[in-house]
């Protein structure tokens, strides 16, 4: 190897040593910026949800509905003293923000509360606490087999004939076709970030 070739080889090695970390750093910065826009959990492994539900007027409905709409879905019970009051407050905050947002106010977005305690969460109580609060709010009961099937699919830990009404209390953002796009756990309590994520998702879905 000539002296010229030796120096060229050294130069290439030095450039490689310097460039690889720079490329890795750039990739990490790009990924961190991309991930910063994602607030809720993405769950591509979950299938879309589909079920029949009953409203406070005892009318039957299918989910997802024939009318395309985005849904925030929450499973819980109204006498819950832990995550449920926090979730219901979140729904109120989100609905108020959506109602005054120029981009979202005219969009078909609903908030679906599914009771896991239909014996105590009667239609009258649900109507007063949930449905009457906004035209976007609806409360539902499911047949027990469908409720448990949905719970198993979403890992909500709802148990048949349980005296404690155990449940996880996640909030789900669901696309018009029933696909679960985001899951918000008990750690995801920022309505501002949820609203920003909804706008971003609707933009990406072509629902501007």
UniProtKB/TrEMBL annotation:
Disulfide bridge partners, by residue number: 80-84
Annotated organism of origin: Shewanella aestuarii
Similarity-based family: Belongs to the SCO1/2 family.
InterPro entries with a match to the protein in the record: SCO1/SenC, Thioredoxin-like_sf
A molecular function (GO) term: metal ion binding
Keywords: Copper, Disulfide bond, Metal-binding
Amino-acid positions noted as binding Cu cation in the UniProt annotation, renumbered to this chain: 80, 84, 167
Protein name in the entry: SCO family protein
Pfam families: SCO1-SenC
Superkingdom, natural source: Bacteria
